[in-house]
Each structure stands twice: as C-alpha cells, then as structure tokens.
Amino acid sequence: MQTPKKIAVVGSGLVGSLLAIYLRRAGHTVHIYDRSPDIRQIQFSGRSINLAMSTRGWKALDGVGVGDSVREIAIPMDKRAIHLVDKLNFQNYGQEGESIYSISRGDLNRRMIDLAEQAGAEFFFEQKIWDVTLSEATLHIGETERGAWEEKKYDIVFGADGAFSRIRHRMQRQSMFNYSQEFLNIGYKELNIPANPDGSHKLDKNSFHIWPRGEYMLIALSNLDGSFTCTLFMPFEGENSFALLENRKDVELFFEKNFPDSIDVIPKLAEDFFKNPTSTLVTMKCYPWTYKDKIALIGDACHAIVPFYGQGMNAGFEDISILSEMMEEYGDDWEMIFSEYEKSRKPNADAIAELSYRNFMEMSSKTADDKFLLQKKIEKWFSDKHPDKWIPLYSRVTFSDRPYTEALAIGDDQNAIMEEVLKTENIEAVWESKEIENKILTLLHEKEAVKN
Amino acid sequence: MQTPKKIAVVGSGLVGSLLAIYLRRAGHTVHIYDRSPDIRQIQFSGRSINLAMSTRGWKALDGVGVGDSVREIAIPMDKRAIHLVDKLNFQNYGQEGESIYSISRGDLNRRMIDLAEQAGAEFFFEQKIWDVTLSEATLHIGETERGAWEEKKYDIVFGADGAFSRIRHRMQRQSMFNYSQEFLNIGYKELNIPANPDGSHKLDKNSFHIWPRGEYMLIALSNLDGSFTCTLFMPFEGENSFALLENRKDVELFFEKNFPDSIDVIPKLAEDFFKNPTSTLVTMKCYPWTYKDKIALIGDACHAIVPFYGQGMNAGFEDISILSEMMEEYGDDWEMIFSEYEKSRKPNADAIAELSYRNFMEMSSKTADDKFLLQKKIEKWFSDKHPDKWIPLYSRVTFSDRPYTEALAIGDDQNAIMEEVLKTENIEAVWESKEIENKILTLLHEKEAVKN
Fold first, then answer.
1. Strand pairing report for B6-10 and B29-33
2. In 3D, which of A156, A159, A89 has the Cα closest to residue A367?
3. Burial, A87: exposed, middle or buried (Cβ in 10 Å; 0-12, 13-18, 19+)?
4. For a designed S-S bond to A303, which of A349, B187, B415, B452 qualifies (C-beta 3.0 to 4.6 A apart)?
5. How many independent structural domains does chain B possess?
6. Rounded CA separation A199/A146 (Å)
C-alpha cells in the first residue's frame, strides 16, 4: 500500500475519471479539475466520434471492477458493414465471439464521472487551470488567463487534459522537451441517423458501418437509443472537400451521388451539416511525460492520435493500467513510478500513432479494394489453419494487450509476406492451396531466421 | 515601389536587423523590438558559437550594400585543420579562393544594429512582447507576463525572435498549425583561446579548427583580436559527457587525454568550463510561417537548426533575399508575398535542417576516418576533371545559392555513387585511374536516366 497523497487530476474526461478511481483505490485524496461545466448537467454533442472500446480499454476498467457498469451502455460490433455504392459487404473483425463495442462518448463520460464520485474523488467543474508550477505541483486557477489566479498546492498533479493540455504547455517551455503536433488535411463532421419510431435501429446495430470512398469516407456507430452517430471524414480542400460543400444543395447532391443508401436514414443531413462544426485531426507527440515525482501527463495530453484505429481511449486507459502496475511495483517511489511509466509507454504510444495514421488509408480506400479484401481472406484462412503462427494485425491491436510496438513490427513483417504471396500468378484462383500455405510458412520461417 | 507600411520587427538579432534594412530600403517605417538590452552597451558572451558566413549570407548582405562593412570584421577560412590526437591534417573547403568567414556573433550583431539604425530603423530595447493579436498585427508589451500590457498596432509584424519566438507561440495556438521541436542529446560549451601577447593568433587563423573524437568534438574559430572562440560539443550523459566532468580535475584530465594540443592554448580551461553554461541544441520546424497579410516569421523563429553546417544565419539571411524577391514581384499584395515566401522557403528550410543534423556525424567522426577522407579525395579529383558534372555537397550548400533541396537530393545521389566506388577492390591504390573515372561517369549517367 502506498502512503496517501493529495493528488490533483486536471481533466474530467474518460482518462481523468478512470485514473481518479485507480488513485482512490490506492488510498489517495483525489481532486479532479475541469474548465468545462459538469457534462452530466449539459447537452454534449456536435463534435464527437463514437468510441470503440476494445480489449485494452476493458482490461483497465475491469482492473477496478467498473467494466460491467460500462458494458450496460455498450453495443458489441463484431464486423464491418462496408457500404459500396452498389452493394453491401461484411467483414468480421476477429474470431467468433470477438467484438469491439460502440459507446457514446457523452454517455461514457457521464458514467465514468459517476463512478469516480462513488469511489470518493471530488470534482471541481468550471475551474480553469492556466498554469502549473512544476517543482511545487501547484495549480494556478482563475476566471481568465490575464485575471487574478488562486494557487492550489498538491503532492502530485496529473495532466489528463487532452491534446491541448495546459499542464503540458508548461512542460513544453522547459529545455530539452521534445514536442510535435501535426494536423491532417482531413477534417470531420458529426451527423446523425435517428432511431425508427419504435426505437429500433435503422441499420444493423452490431456492425461498424463504413462508406469507403478513397480520400473521404462516412462511418456510423450505433447508440443505445436506436440512433447512430455518423462521422464524415473528408479533406478540407480539393476535389472532394468541405470547401466545396457550401450550401444545402451541394451537400444533398454530394450525398445522393456518393452515399446513396444514406439519404433515407439521415433526414436532417443539411441541417446538421451546417450546424455542426468541421473539426480537425491532430497527431501530438512529446517527451518526457513526467517531471520528477510531481507531475505526469496521461492519455491524449501526451499522445494524441488520429481516430482511425479506434484506439485513442483504449491507449489512454492502458496508460492507467501500466501506471498502476508501476505503483504496485515501486510503492512510494513516485520518481521511479513516473520514470518507468513514461519509458514503458512512450514507444507504444508512438507505435499506435503510426498505426492509426496508416489506418485511414485502410478504412477509406482499401476496404473497397478487391486485392486488399483478398489479402484479408488469405490471412484469415491461414490464421485459421495456424492460429499460433498468424494473428492478424487488427487483432493484435484490438483483441490483445500485448505491446503496440510488437503489433506494429509483426504487422510490417506480415504485410511484406502478403505482398510476396499476392504476386503469385493467378492468386485469385489458387490462394486456397497447399502451395500458398507452404509459401507463407517458408516466408515466416525466413523472417524468424533473420531475427535470430 | 511598395506603398509605405508601418512595420514592427520583433527581435534585434542578425536576421531582424538585416530585415529592417531591406524594409527601410523599400520605403517602410520600421520599429524593432527586443526584450534584451542594447547589445552595443553590454558584454555579450558565454553561449555563442562563432558564425561562418558563406555565399548565401554574403548575397543577402550585398543585396543592400552592407557586405563590405561586414567584411571588415570577418576572417576568411579556406580549410579545415583537423587535430587528431597524434597529428594535424588540413582539408580545403572548396576551390582555390573559396572560403567561409569567421565572425564573432556579438561583433556582427553590433555592426548590423548600427547599419539598421543608419538605414533609418528605430530600435526599442528592453521591450518585452508577451503576445500578438494576429488579425490586427498588434503587439502586447509589458514588464512581466502577468502584469499590465501596452498595445502597439502595426500594419505588419515580423517575428524574427528566434527559436523560442513569442510571435510563433501565438500562431502555435491556432488550429492547423504544425510544429515540432526536438532536442539533441548533445550540449555545447564555449571556451576561449586568448591572443598571444603581441596580438597574434596562437593557431592558424585561416583554418576552421576541429578536434574530431567521435561522439564529441572541439572546434575553434578565429576572432579579429587574436583570440579564438572554442566550442565543445559533447553528450549530456554517458561515457564521454558533461555529466562526468564534475570538477576542475575531471576537466583538465579529460582535455589532457583527448585534446592534448589544446592544453597550452586554453589557459583558463576549467575556469571557463564552470563559468559558462552548457547550452542545448534544438531543431524546430513549423508551418505555416505567415498569417494573412499581417504576420510573418523569419529565420530561427520558423526554422531553428543545429549548427553543424554553419548555415543557421546563412539560411535566415536567405529568407530575407527570397522575401525581398517576392516584394519586388508582388508589390502591395502582402498576402501573396507571404504565401509565396513560405511556400518557397519551407522545403529548403527542411532540407538544411536535415543536412545540418547529419553533419554532426561528418564533423565529429568522419573527418577522422580514412575511408571518408579517401572519398573526399576521389570526389575532389573527379570534380577537378569534370567540374560541370560533380560539385561536392559541401560546396553546393556553402558556395552556392541554389536551393538547399537540390543540394540534399544531389548529395544523396553522389553518396550512393561513392558508396559503389568505394567497394572497388583495392580502391586505396587504384582510385586515380581511368577505370574509376569511367565508373563514376557511368553511375552518374544511370542516375540521370532514372530521372528522365
């Protein structure tokens, strides 16, 4: 057991709330600050992508026994529903029984705050943190950036305040702090498929729906109330872009032409399109993540990624699992806890950033590509024959808690192998053969040999 | 001629001062702000690496007729003097008559401020800019960050305020602003070789002196007063590092062992070592560099690089040459001027960042490596025979004003060719042969063919 500390968590989002539960269980006093009002008192909407909880997320929730409470508001999705212009394909995500889970960000955040309060964490909403004194773990709080500030001293401060973290902002001004932020030229906009009058879903609720169109795509994830949260990803400028959709007519024509089967299910298309903001997507990396035994960043505050692998929240929750392991291992030595936490997590955060960045192409282009679908079929066929020799990349990321770095490295090896295999003459006809099976086995063996 | 504008330049360093001269020549009112006192009134020292002015720098200075005034305080260096532990080698930088020029940063900065004042720019020292309103080109000035601020409105604001630019700091908080800062694990420390009693130099003043030792190195550049400014580059931590040199004895033993011929010429070694700070080295990249027709970053404020190619100041001065070309081309259309300026300069800034980063290895390791010295000899021999076909990378960067991007690309091609050539059996003996000449010609031809 650790000596009880007085700990501030800045940010009452998903990671901040779950972290608070872990810290309470370890016996600490926990104050959570957020610049926004209590999300439980307000309407939350307009710029959210539904979350896809997977193994890493569940592990962190179950680690403090709150997984089942979250399962109540989650809908399993065991496959992709790929809406081509003229047909609908399905592609399973994993083995029988493996699913990712659609959860509304607002619903989950409200639930997590309730759970953190029940665990004894104290929340302070509409409290703006403008600065932090790193060496003293002291927060500077006030109405405005240039107005009067109040000081609150803690033993430890966690920055769980997202991609534009104020806590990190102060650390950035230290020497030797590495930092990068890179925006995609793709933006996103939230749209909505309402429930049927009887409360049922208009599309299959157990599918992750994608309309892949190359440089842009539409996705839809189910909600408990029968609706779907849709997200349109599209370049800001260029041939198919937000810049060209200037009025209702433009938007309606664009959807009729490119997403014909969405027209009937998105009744308030143009209205929502112009009401909801067009949001940006950023990859943010930094290092170090901690300052002595005083300050630690966690979640998006130290590794914001693009959403195309559905791993942002899962990676943030996994930060907490690893931090918790370090707390158990190093007891009261918080400098060691923080140092081992950042060393362990940084390479994995970089790996999932890379995988997420790459996956836009997979989702928006490759899911509509015959060669890619063939590759997936061959992988699945081989994996069924040799489950010990071939776990697909998606499963390594999504249905496993092995390090992301391992998934990235093995995924690259597998892709190189499949590139070779797809060069086989007449592969479309001969893939289900002993010849191909042996070819893959040989190539796998060669990769192994190189490593040893 | 442009319509006169009221322009603020933030930063009275080398780039800010030269930019002010260009803007004055174009007829604008120019106010230069700096948070520090007037460098002409104070002792400047302790964390400077002497500058190496080369072609791009001279071109920008000569463009407004101030080159000759700067030549008065510059010392030509036509070669490297490579101090190995047991011998001294020399290596020419370019062709007969080609030199880089050693200038003390303090001397040059004082001269540039004098020249800018003579051109009619007005300086405001000890004026701290804390913020800028981008859309209004308004500076916010005050004693302290949290104290009272005064507003100064301009037509245009230039941020020439270095790697930790306050102007960029505000732009960073805009959406879609890409940014990265990456520190090297190598620090540097200024040391000094004083003049002889008669005012002469203790080492050859027309050489750039290097003591290459692999992961660390010492350099020395001459000053007008007979002294040399030395810089020790070394890892912060590890086997040979600043961390291990904790007291006078450590420093003296380290220098005796590793830089034996420096001992006699650096009399205040330990004193300076502990008086002068250990400084950090950062590569900073960002984009965009401008905001509408109101704000532009220039020099280190938008592309801080490590000093190993001696191009930091030269690249900053070249920014001004390009900006000036755009001013001539687009007249009063400042939005166009800024947009074309940033589009033209960004790839070149990235290229010199990459070249500078790579050059640490060249300076600290390769200059002591026989294979590398042989490569340089072969390149020089071939280049003398075919001056139209082979301009060495160093010359492309240093003695040319062709784009850095071109130097980087051609340099990579040349390196690939030389890698092939060095594989030739018994190359040490046969390099000066028709066979090798033909081999290089063939490889060059193949590279050309690929491109067309």
1. parallel
2. A89
3. exposed
4. A349
5. 2
6. 49
Written as tens digits, the pLDDT of chain B (452 aa) is: 799 999 999 999 999 999 999 999 999 999 999 999 999 998 766 677 899 999 999 999 999 999 999 999 999 999 999 999 889 999 999 888 999 999 999 999 999 999 999 999 999 999 999 999 999 999 999 999 888 999 999 999 999 999 999 999 999 988 899 999 999 999 999 999 999 999 999 999 999 999 999 899 999 999 999 999 999 999 999 999 999 999 999 999 999 999 999 999 999 999 999 999 999 999 999 999 999 999 999 999 999 999 999 999 999 999 999 999 999 999 999 999 999 999 999 999 999 999 999 998 888 878 788 888 899 999 999 999 999 999 999 999 999 999 999 999 999 999 999 999 999 999 999 999 999 999 999 999 998 887 76
Spatial separation of the C-alpha atoms in residues A4 and A49, rounded to whole Å: 37
Q: Which of A226, A244, A275 is the last residue of a domain?
A: A275
Q: Kindly report the three-state secondary structure assignment for every residue of A402-421.
A: CCHHHHHHHHHHHHHHHHHH
**Residue B280 in contact with partner chain A when CB distance is under 8 A:** yes
B257: closest CA of chain A, how far (Å): 30
Write the DSSP assignment of A57-110 as a string of letters.
HHHHHHTTT-HHHHHTT-EEE-EEEEE-SS-EEEEE-SSTT--EEEE-HHHHHH
CA dihedral (B75, B80, B85, B86) positive or negative: negative
Distance CA B6, CA B31 (A): 8
- Is residue A331 domain-shared with residue A400, that is, in the same domain? no
The residue ranges of DSSP E strands in A134-254, in sequence order, are: 138-142, 149-153, 156-159, 178-183, 186-193, 207-212, 217-222, 228-235
Angstroms from B178 CA to nearest CA on chain A: 5
Separation in Å, CA of B180 to nearest CA in chain A: 4
Closest CB to A181 among B146, B179, B183: B179
- CA atoms of B384 and B380, how far apart (whole Å): 6
Domain final residue, candidates B313, B335, B359: B359
Which amino acid is it at A202? K
How far, in Å, CA of A148 to CA of B286, rounded? 33
Q: Is the ipTM of this complex over 0.90?
A: no
DSSP reduced 3-state for A449: helix
A144 contact B CB<8A: no
Distance from CA of B252 to the nearest CA of A (A): 28
Asked if A250 and A150 sit in the same domain, the reply is no
> Are B153 and B33 part of one and the same domain?
yes
CB contact under 8 A, B176 and A280: yes
* A36 in the same domain as A127: yes
For an interface test with A, the pick among B179, B184, B284 (most A C-beta atoms closer than 10 Å) comes out as B179
Q: In A, which residues are within 8 Å of B180 by CB distance? A: 179-182
CA distance B253 to A370: 68
> Closest partner residue to B280 among A176, A181, A182, by Cβ?
A176
DSSP labels for B355-392? HHHHHHHHHHTGGG-HHHHHHHHHHHHHHHH-TTT---
Could you tell me the CATH number of the domain that includes residue B321?
3.50.50.60
Site of tokens 């879903």: A201
Residue A175's domain comprises 6-77+98-180+282-359
Give the closest of B146, B175, B180 to A280, CB-based: B175
- Chain B residues within an 8 Å CB radius of A146: 146
Token pair belonging to B106: 């303090």
Burial-class residue B73 by CB neighbours within 10 Å (0-12, 13-18, 19+). Answer: middle
User: CB-based burial of residue B291 (10 Å sphere; 0-12 exposed, 13-18 middle, 19+ buried)?
Assistant: buried
- For an interface test with B, give the residue of A143, A146, A150, A185 to mutate (most B CBs within 10 A): A146
